[in-house]
Amino acid sequence: MDTQSIVILDFGSQYTQLIARRIREQNVFSAVLPCTASLAEIKAYSPIGIILSGGPYSVYDADAPDADPGILDIGLPVLGICYGLQFIAHHLGGKVLSADKREYGHAEVHIEDSKTPLFAGLPTTLQVWMSHGDEALELPTGFHRTAATSNALAGIANETRRIWAVQFHPEVHHTPLGSQLLKNFVFGICGAQGDWTAAHFIESTVNSIREKVGQGHVICALSGGVDSSVAAVLVHRAIGDQLTCVFVNNGVLRKNEFTQVTKNLRDKLGLNLVPVDASARFLEKLAGVTDPETKRKQIGREFIAVFDDEATRIAEQTGGVDWLVQGTLYPDVIESSSVRGPSQTIKSHHNVGGLPETMKMKLIEPLRDLFKDEVRRIGRDLGMPEDILGRQPFPGPGLAVRILGEVTAERVAILQEADDIVVNEIKTAGLYSQVWQSFAVLLPVRSVGVMGDQRTYANTCAIRAVHSEDGMTADWVPLPYEVLKRISSRIVNEVRGINRVVYDITSKPPGTIEWE
Ligand code: XMP
Question: 47 - beta bridge partners?
Fold first, then answer.
């Protein structure tokens, strides 16, 4: 690898990804590897330093995750965080015991060794976030205590061996000066240059795609969302019209989305784009289906069938398709090798990237090292318009998972109108980029209303708006009453088929963001 990197070994902490993000924010590349990675796998990243993450275990648990202790001897600077500190103490001959008092939450740390480079420029008292039950009671030979709380040890170091460790979590926002501490490690101790910028990423990715693909032909399934669009634009920059993008109308897109996305990507960004209107095929498969998982599976299967047909057609025209672009992001890559193991499936996700192996194409995943916000930054540097980069997430199965009960062309049209009003009103109120998602859901509930002097008996629509960091958890947003009032009155007045609007005030958990 030609970029300087910091390798983070993951012992299963819920904060591990945050460590990576805090370091990348300083323009230094960081990779998260499972703690079980071999020394050779670690060295393949040519790291300039290693960070050992926290984790939910005690080093004495029978199933405690372990790393090769050789990492402490390869001559690279090491920073242990929480469990990482205990790992170091345990493997170098110290003693770790269950603490008398478990420390969880805010704490005050007193720095005892202000001269150690990890604490350079920091005040002698730090507000930090703690989350641990064990503590190192006897330090390994050559180590000294660098910080403590009123209860327990909070930091150790052996400067000759270039090993530092802290008991608290510098990567979380609750440790306000944590970024400075990480910066001290990455720049002051490891000697990073901070040259991992968007421009650098684009240049090296474009070069490596060019080299990989040669004269081959590449296809990409576009969804119109941020990830697949940025991935396509990067590949297009590398190989131009050797890339063909396929954009499928599955009949459950938002109002005018098919024409707008086609226009944006083809006309504004110059992609070689094949729009495929397969709505009739999808709606046929959805006829009579009311079970959420069956809907998802039908759409997923049909998508693969449509895409396969197109790929075959393109292969006939171009003499063969060798590569497939996928918009895989870094959290998926980390998750699939996490020591926490796979999490339970709540919903079967359908992503345009989830294509079968039988297609026999090699994969290009230009975003597999990036977090979502980094993808947006790359998109901006590529000159992509804000209306693509700022789009709220939209699920692969589209409006089908927001129409409860059967999905018919008529119900799709009703929801498209209501959804369009929600999106426009949220945009007008300046809230679109502040909320994670805001949308309408069509319920299989009819109620009585009155319009003019007429009795109505029509559908109910629910409005949902949530804040979230990553879609894993979410809080419902208290939209201003004025905005809700306009949305409600416009939907009932302008959308034929809806006579009642309700507001969803459920967070995730226990709810999910989408209704199905
Ligand atoms: P849930 O409903 O599981 O959604 O709380 C979490 C986030 O994931 C999005 N979502 C999907 N995205 N394919 C996707 O690409 C899917 O099948 C899918 N289902 C849900 C959802 O919009 C939210 O942002």
Answer: 5
